[in-house]
Structure formats: structure tokens, C-alpha cells
Amino acid sequence: MKKKTFFITTPIYYVNDVPHIGHAYTTIAADVAARYRRLAGDDVFFLTGTDEHGQKVQQAAGQSGREPQAHVDDLHVRFKELWIRFNISNNDFIRTTEERHKKVVREILQKLYDEGEIYKDSYEGWYCMPDERFWTEKDLVDGNCPECGRKVEKITESNYFFKMGQHRDWLVDHINQNENFIQPKSRRNEILGFLKQPLDDLCISRPKERLPWGIPLPFDDEYVTYVWFDALINYISTFGTLDKIRSCGFWPAAHHLIGKDILTTHSVYWATMLKAIGLDLPENIFAHGWWTVNGQKMSKSLGNVVEPNHLIEQFGVDVIRYFLLREVPFGLDGDFSHKALIGRINSDLANNLGNLLNRTLNMLKKYFKGELPKIGTKGDEDAPLIAKSAEVIQEVDQLYGELAYSKILAKIWEFLDAGNIYINDTAPWNLAKSDDGKKRLATVLYNSAEACRVIAILIAPFMPQTADKMMEQLGIDTPVDKQGLDSLKKWGWIQPGTQTHQGAQIFPRIEDKAAAKILEEVAVGGEAPASEKNVETNGKGQITIDDFMKVDLRTAKIIAAEKVKKSKKLIKLKVDLGTEQRQVLAGIAEAYEPEQLVGRTVILVANLKPAKLMGLESQGMILAGSDGDAIILGGFDGDLPPGVRVK
Length: 647
Ligand code: ME8
Prior knowledge:
This protein is an alpha/beta fold. Helices cover about 45% and strands about 20% of the residues.
């Protein structure tokens, strides 16, 4: 029989910054679905990668003082390495600067141009630099970008447009007729609402003189391709030419997993692009929710970005994989806190999962020298356990269709509870007291070991390392993927006579003292790794250049200033960093009037943990020197644009 194919993707992430927990979330979710389909025996293709063109990346490269290519060559590795650490099983990692991708982008552009789907026109609009998007007058909110709230610029220029507007009616029909095309339902309604308005054509070029970092249009080399038109094509460029995409067996994708921030680009831009290219639409675009940290938006400027490498070092890979997908229903927003994470480790992993495996192996060792006995006397408690296993296996399979990760884990844990209850109800410690009881004990421990194996297979997509460790302790040599879901079809796969080896606890409890220490560290030091918190000196009070470079000094232009009420010293500043604006409080009111400050370029410590002064948040600190009462702001001899790194 021909194998079923399954194609799943993540967004390709911008390499303007290092990966954080939000990127890890989507990638782990895709990995779990890919691993499950492999266990089911499907032919799986799992794609992730990096988005390396466009304004954001060009700007980030400029700030690090490098050419864009050198910048992306360096930064994309952080993503690749993190995915290796997280045991991500992607089949390909695509970079949009690779020739194989650029070739397909050019092929598609030329085809659409030749077919009259792309035209040139002069355009006047409001442009948001950081978001790289044009807006019409009516879109603006208080004159600013409706998406990020930052200022926009009026731009008139000639550009190329993709005839997207003509596709509205069929797209609405498609969404209405295919319930699963956009999930969850609330997001689907959002897009249907958006499509009630006329749909504009899409500007798909940028003049090279304004933005050189992109793929040149094959029919006009004065222009480069708009970064989204380029990036979306990654989902098919992985297969080579248009002909190969049609014959590879993986298109259309089963799932494009994305965050809710990029739903319009996927469900409208990408869908209409595919239609124009003549390819089928993906089966499902799933827009999951947004992670905040302790109730706050994660942002570099607030210094609260959760660094996944640090979490892995502290808690281990599988714990993080489990927590992210268990804590929040996929599709809803979630809040990351160490307290919740420790709670899950202790209750779900140590108390429940660890306990079932541990007590089973412990009793096997005690009563049977670790060797799995044959089934002996059957009892009333057996059938409910076996029935629960079958029910959970079936429901888990259905829930994968909805990518309902949190419910899947809750279901698996129902079976775990059933396993622990089975042991409590059968009370093996009493059975061990008589010869008759021992025959029943053999059955109870056989069933408990089989329950542990079933659980190991079911959790393997979420916690692959843990599943392997469980198999090792159960003495099973056949790898999880060789056992596959087929091995769950009938109760009793594990062989009597198997020699089990009780090892270390797979999830030790985090005791109260250790938990308190972790929480205290987080409260004091934000999310930075300990190694970055302590600057070591060499005994002469000197630091290394690496230590100095940890301080992110940037040029910042003051765009507004006002005295803080009831404070003699503080001035509230709004500063522009090129890519963002920040509020900073400076103790310079006795030396400067607010009007003197607007328009000046100052030096900002940009990665300082935000602090509250007089109830107002300060997102950084500006540098000044003082001699007695005189305070003088640091600055430059000449003009520098905002956001430049100061070294
Ligand atoms: O948008 N919570 O890349 P990007 C949850 N290059 N998920 C989050 C998150 C958070 N706080 N922060 C980021 C781009 N994500 C484009 C995509 S695709 C053809 C081009 C995840 O680096 C989430 O998946 O800004 C979100 O959609 C994605 O990272 C945005 O990554």
C-alpha cells in the first residue's frame, strides 16, 4: 500500500534577532505533529528555515556593522543550532538567500508577469519602515501605523503590483466551504471579516535604491522583490521547480503552522499567490496564540525575552517541550512564568509520570528480580485499564487532526492516572504476601509495564528523549519509531522475560528550596543566563572586550521630552531607536529644559532591564557625565542616525 504523505511547515523566521521562546513554540508544535505522523507510518516532510531578505534584516545587519550576507550567514546558525538542541526533526532548513529558493521565486515572478498577473503602477501611500508595509490614509490610527503604532512616511513611487484584488470572491467561497482551511474558528472569522472590504492589489516590489537587500525582479533589475512575496514561496521552493512541486507528492501542505501575527499574509497573500500560480491551497493554516512573559509582551526593549538555551540548561529539553504545549490550548494566548513551569514539573512529570514508571520498575525488581513475568491470574481491574488505553489512543489520534496539543497531553495523563489507580486498587504489596497472590501480582506488574510502554509511545512526539529513557529502563531494545502506533493496536506487545533496569528518576522533583532560588534569580536578573549576569574581572578590576560588548549602547534621537510631575530631577523622554521608540526617564531636569533636548542624539544603554521611577517605566538609560551639580549629556561630534551601535 502506498504510504500517506504529510507536509508540515513553520514560518521562516527573520534573522534580525536571535530566536526566543515564541519561535521555539511554533517549531516544537510542528515537530510534535511530524513525529506523530511518522509513528503512524506516514511519509513526512517537515520544513522550517529563515527569512533573510528585506528591510528588517538589512537594518539589523547595518546595526551590527556588517554586510547583510555576513549577518545572515552568522545569525541563521543560531536557529539551526537551537533546533538541534530541541531535537527538532525537520527534513529541510531553507534559507531565502539560497540559490535554490531564489530560482523558484524568479520562476514564479516571470510566469505571473508573462501572464499579466503583475503590472507596474505609480503609487502613493503611507509606508511603515519597520513593518515594511504600505497603508492607505484610512488605515492609519492617529496618523500612525495601525499594526505597530510607529510613525509612517508618505511615499510616492513606481512599483510592481500583483493582481490580488480580483481573487477576493473565490477566496471567501473557499474559506466558507473548507472549515479547516483557517483554524482556529475565531481566526477564520477574523479573515472573513477582513475580506468584507474590497481587496487591494499587492505591491510586490521595492526600488533597489531604497532597499537593495532582496531578490532582483527577473523583468526589471531596478527593483527587488517584496520580502513577503519572496518568503512565502519557501513553502514550495524546497521542492525545486514548479514541475517538481506538482509531482513531489507533498503539495499541498497539510498544515502551515504560524502565529496569529502573520495570518493575513498566509491566508490572503499566499492563498491568492498559489491560485495565480495554479497550485492547490494548503489544507490548513493554523494560527496559534501569543506568549507573553509574566503578563508582559516579550520584547528586547523590556529585557524580558525568554531565552530558550538558558531554559534548556536549567530544566532540560523535554520539560520545555512539554510545558509549552501543555500549559496553553493551541490557538489561545499564553503567559510564561517559571512558577507555572516548576508546578508542571512537580505535579505532571515527577509525581505522575515519574511515579508510575518508578513504582512499576521498583516492584518488578523487588518481586521478580527485574524480569517481566508472564500474565498469571486475571482480575476485575484489568479490563478497565486496557479499555482506557484503547480509548485514549483513539481520542489522541482524533485530537491530532485539530492540533489540540494540550488536550492530547491531558488525555494521555488520564491514562497515566488510570495506571496509578490500577496499582493502588490492586495493591501489589499485599499480593506479594501469598503464593496465590503472586500469580495475580505477575499480571498486575505485566500490565503496569505495558501501560508504561504505551505511555512512552504516546508521549514520544512531545518528549522524545524521555520516551527513549523509559524504553531503556523497561528493557525494550526496539526503538520507539520501529514499534510505532501499530504496536498499540493490541494490548500486550511487551515480551514476558524482558529484563528491566530501574535507572535514575526520569523527572526528579524540584524541591521547595531549589524552586524558591530559581524564582528569586528570575525576579532579580530577568531572563538572562547566569553567565551573563556576573561580569568577571581579572583581579585588577579589568573586564574583557566581550564583557563590554554585553552592554548594548545605541544612538537614540530624542523626539519628545517633558518634566515628570512632582519630581525635581526627572525628565520623561521619548527616544527613537530607528526600529522602535522607547520611554526613558533621565535625572537631568536640573541641568536641561525639555525643549533643549528634542532633536538631540544621545547614547542609550539599550539592553538595561526596565525599571519603574515615580510609577513610570524607564526602558533604558541615557549616558551623561557630571561634575558636581553640572550634568552634561554624552553625544557625538557629527550626525549619526538613530539605532547605531556605539562601541
Ligand atoms: O514573521 N508567541 O518572522 P518572525 C508565540 N519572517 N509565537 C511567537 C512569538 C510569541 N511571542 N514571537 C514569535 C516572520 N513567534 C516572517 C515569517 S513566513 C513565510 C515569514 C513565532 O521571526 C510565531 O510563529 O517575526 C510567529 O508567527 C513567528 O514566530 C514570527 O516570526
